[in-house]
Amino acid sequence: MSELTPKSDYMLLFRGTNWGDKLSPEQIQQVASDWMAWFQRLTQEGKVSSGHPLMNEGKVVSGKKGRTVADGPFAEAKEAVGGYFYLHVDGMDEALEIARQCPGLDYGAIVEVRPVAEKCMMRERALELASGAGQLAGANA
Fold it and tell me: How far apart are CA 85 and CA 51, in angstroms?
């Protein structure tokens, strides 16, 4: 029995919310249809488990204890995330190949490919620091 290669999880983040501004309604409909067909094919192949477009509205929370709340993201921002796909593929090369198939690329969309971490890196760092502090305290006792 051959050992299966474990799948890796990746996010495709679709950046650029104004890529269709210069397209006719017919062109926008065609790109939207192509995008949906792409998503459905990847879903049928078991490579995508979810994906959704994001609204061009929301809030941005920042500052200590989230005290600053501002309107955003801004639809006119070229780098705004307009949607995502959650991929289960064999690695970065396959994720990149899928990203290159994005129907919006020809019209200015940008696809960011990011691996999904198995663990929260901030938590791991905190545990590492706590462990080091504990070892240091034990050495000084």
Answer: 4
Residue 9 sits at the vertex; the CA angle it makes with 112 and 42, to the nearest 5 degrees, is 75
Q: Residue 53: pLDDT above 50?
A: yes
pTM of the model: 0.76
Cα–Cα distance measured from residue 27 to residue 4, given in angstroms and rounded to the nearest whole number? 42
Domain-located, residue 90? yes
What sign does the CA torsion over 81, 82, 87, 93 have? negative
pLDDT tens, position by position, 2-40: 344 567 999 999 988 788 888 999 999 999 999 999 999
DSSP letter string, 61-118 = EESGGG-EEEE---TT-TT-EEEEEEEEESSHHHHHHHHTT-TTGGGT-EEEEEEPPS
Query: What is the C-alpha to C-alpha distance for residues 18 and 77, in angstroms, rounded to an integer?
Result: 8
Number of domains observed in the structure of the chain: 1
Domain extent at residue 19: 8-140
Question: What CATH code is carried by the domain that includes residue 58?
Answer: 3.30.70.1060
